[in-house]
Specification:
- This protein is mainly α and about 325 residues long.
- About 50% of the residues lie in helices and about 0% in strands.
- The chain is globular and about 60 Å long.
- About 5% of the residues have low confidence.
- The structure holds protoporphyrin IX containing FE (HEM) and 2-acetamido-2-deoxy-beta-D-glucopyranose (6 copies).
- The site of one 2-acetamido-2-deoxy-beta-D-glucopyranose (NAG) has 3 residues, from helix 11.
- The site of one 2-acetamido-2-deoxy-beta-D-glucopyranose has 7 residues, from helix 6.
Length: about 325
Amino acid sequence: MKTSNNISFAWFITISMLCLLANSQLTTNFYSQSCPKLQSIVRRQVTMALKTEMRMAASLLRLHFHDCFVNGCDASILLDGADGEKFALPNNNSARGYEVVDAIKTAVESSCSGVVSCADILTIAARDSVVLSGGTGWPVLLGRRDGFVANQSGANSNLPAPFENIGNITLKFEAVGLNLTDVVSLSGAHTIGQASCATFGNRLFNFSGTNAPDSTLLDQNMLTGLQNLCPVNGDSSRTSPLDWNSTDLFDNHYFQNLVKGRGVLESDQILYSSDEALTTTRSLVELYSNDKDAFANDFKNSMIKMGNIQPLTGSAGEIRRNCRVVNS
Ligand code: HEM
Ligand SMILES: *[C@@H]1O[C@H](CO)[C@@H](O)[C@H](O)[C@H]1NC(C)=O
Ligand SMILES: *[C@@H]1O[C@H](CO)[C@@H](O)[C@H](O)[C@H]1NC(C)=O
Ligand SMILES: *[C@@H]1O[C@H](CO)[C@@H](O)[C@H](O)[C@H]1NC(C)=O
Ligand SMILES: *[C@@H]1O[C@H](CO)[C@@H](O)[C@H](O)[C@H]1NC(C)=O
Ligand SMILES: *[C@@H]1O[C@H](CO)[C@@H](O)[C@H](O)[C@H]1NC(C)=O
Ligand SMILES: *[C@@H]1O[C@H](CO)[C@@H](O)[C@H](O)[C@H]1NC(C)=O
């Protein structure tokens, strides 16, 4: 009994120290000596990009998510090449913002050459995108390094699809150390940005062979609007805002929409309307729809958690000179 307690205690200490170590590798002041102006350089570039196109905030936020879920937050999504993550099903013709990341990287390099990773640039740009869209910010942990490989099959298997149920989506979050709270809070990112007909058109006319639209899409105005945008055999690349209430504003209207049956993606609406939701996500959707501060706080914590997925630190990986290619 005593020995087993001692062993448990030793394990507890070991694991606690490992956790401390893992956390202490990323720090908010990682570049304070080597690139003191980093934060303002990135903020300025993101601001400029949003002046050209407000949707870019959503695209940059999504790039960071799609980076972190595949081989960790290592900028693997930015690597060019036919076998890259860019061309995986969830990203092909959908993930965007690569040119903006290039512009940020160029601006950063001209001020402090060879020290800031593309993975950290993506993380800061995602936070800035939320803030410049009216959301609440957070201190970004830094010190990630860039990976050597893109993983197309990893992108296909790890990234959630809009046709999956809550159980399956949750499994994909749990596979990278996130939980059910993170599923709901991070889905709140769909308060900005656009989705193409390809990702929700199945809900509009003959949902699951019912010869009727998805009955959980309650707003008839919105249903008609989406049907006109995405007719059967129409152009599946046309896009709709994900939040019909305040498209470019980072607020909690996404959750208010779900309560009113105004979610665009099936994977959005099921968080409130499905049977599974009753025992999993519905109460959180209700909380966030009524309490914007609860959403802002949980979103912040979940984004920090997501940014901590398997970072390369120390001498692992490299600092890429060009975010699209590994250094030779
Ligand atoms: C919970 C599982 C999720 C699913 C199934 C999902 C699925 C999708 C789909 C299908 C689109 C539309 C893509 C297109 O048509 O081009 C989209 C867009 C978007 N997603 Fe998600 N997503 C999920 C979680 C997240 C998370 C965790 C974030 C970020 C924290 C996020 C941020 C975004 C943003 C900002 C957009 C709009 C992008 C733009 O306008 O360029 N999503 N998502
Ligand atoms: C990506 O999209 C392009 C253009 O639609 C298509 O030609 C190509 O086959 C797609 N790539 C993959 C790997 O599916
Ligand atoms: C690609 O991703 C899958 C799923 O996360 C992982 O099992 C595999 O080891 C990765 N491959 C490489 C080359 O990183
Ligand atoms: C959930 O995942 C299982 C196993 O991959 C798959 O067979 C099933 O079709 C998925 N269901 C949904 C609704 O995504
Ligand atoms: C998810 O993890 C956070 C800590 O990261 C915790 O506060 C929260 O209660 C967890 N949620 C669930 C449903 O386990
Ligand atoms: C609706 O889908 C079901 C199952 O895929 C199919 O059998 C039926 O013919 C479709 N109805 C119409 C009007 O296309
Ligand atoms: C958006 O939601 C807010 C809060 O519920 C409401 O006051 C406003 O009228 C809505 N706007 C639109 C365009 O639906």
